[in-house]
Design a protein that fits this description.
oxidoreductase activity, acting on the CH-OH group of donors, NAD or NADP as acceptor; elongated; Rossmann fold; Glyoxylate/hydroxypyruvate reductase A; NAD(P)-bd_dom_sf; about 15% strand; 12 strands; about 325 residues; five-stranded parallel beta sheet; 2 domains; alpha/beta; NAD binding; D-isomer_DH_NAD-bd; 10 helices
Length: about 325
């Protein structure tokens, strides 16, 4: 007969939720958690009157020391698709599930952001904006989707959700991922050995990879040089995957025609970064996609209830893979 778990009584009594309001939409997330929590206590960091009763920590970027005293913690939950700040946080207890958000609104928002960037380039709206300011009436030769290949780097939920409408719009699609994927209308490439061929086919490169030790800096000068001349980079996954200095050099040389960047090595982007004023860069402050706060709150409650019932939570991070 196995010995009883000495921490089980404390864990069973702990039902509280601790929310760290570090996300940009923290007020809305707090309201959603309040609406969805039922009779569970909800505490807002740094006000934690009963740390021993915290069963779930909800955060985007956890503040230093947040895990101290959370002896009965049973779930760490992110508020978006990326949880690298939580994954790498000092003091995160081993063995406690870490979950990310997978939601329809997140998929839709990401697809909208990427398609907007691609259409802005393929239909020359960025150039037409310049012509309007200069009062120039000039029709440019239209590029057709059937002559353009979009490469999606990362074929997870967000990558596949983006691929479907792009395929309906008539673009050719290739995809690259750690392991080979099978998806309708996407020619799949996998692993380091096939990355060069994938890049050489990508007139538009959409970067949607998770951030791991293997993907940090994956798009360096050598990788960017394998893209077709005039290619466009759309980086919306995680900062640190595109070598920013190498990207600027590729834009300056004319090898790349433009870059749409939503994620960066350092966020907020430093005021002295050359990316701000570069004519070949369109940047946004990490806003490509965000799930509805109520969807986040409902998922947190569902996962906490599943753990209490002894069931595996939804969308848990694989600790070995890092995502």
């Amino acid at each position: 007969m196995s010995m009883p778990d000495k921490q089980a009584p404390a864990a069973n009594q702990a039902r509280g939720i601790l929310f760290c309001p570090t996300a940009s939409n923290a007020d809305l997330l707090q309201e959603a958690l309040e609406a969805a929590r039922g009779d569970r206590p909800l505490w807002i960091w740094p006000d934690v009157p009963s740390p021993e009763k915290v069963a779930c920590l909800v955060a985007f970027r956890p503040p230093p020391g947040v895990f101290e005293g959370l002896a009965a913690l049973r779930l760490v939950h992110g508020v978006g698709a990326g949880v690298n700040a939580l994954r790498d946080a000092p003091g995160r207890p081993a063995g406690v599930p870490l979950c990310r958000v997978v939601a329809e609104e997140l998929d839709q928002g990401m697809a909208q952001h990427i398609i907007h960037a691609i259409l802005r380039e393929t239909r020359d709206h960025r150039l037409y904006d310049e012509q309007q300011r200069a009062r120039i009436w000039k029709r440019l030769t239209q590029r057709h989707a059937c002559d353009i290949t979009v490469g999606i780097m990362g074929l997870g939920a967000l990558g596949l959700a983006t691929a479907r409408p792009l395929r309906q719009l008539g673009y050719n699609l290739v995809g690259w991922s750690r392991s080979r994927k099978s998806a309708e209308g996407i020619e799949s490439f996998a692993g380091p050995a096939e990355m060069g061929t994938f890049l050489s086919r990508s007139d538009f490169l959409v970067v949607l990879l998770p951030i791991t030790a293997e993907t940090h800096g994956i798009l360096d000068a050598t990788a960017l040089s394998k893209l077709p001349r005039g290619a466009v980079v759309v980086a919306v996954g995680r900062g640190g995957q595109v070598d920013e200095a190498a990207l600027l050099a590729a834009l300056d040389s004319g090898h790349l025609s433009h870059a749409h960047l939503d994620v960066f090595e350092t966020e907020p982007l430093p005021a002295d970064s050359a990316l701000w004023a570069h004519p070949g860069v369109t940047l946004t402050p990490h806003i490509a996609a965000s799930p509805h706060p109520l969807a986040v709150a409902r998922l947190v409650m569902e996962n906490l209830s599943r753990i209490e019932r002894g069931e595996p939570p939804l969308h848990a991070v694989d600790e070995a893979r890092g995502y």
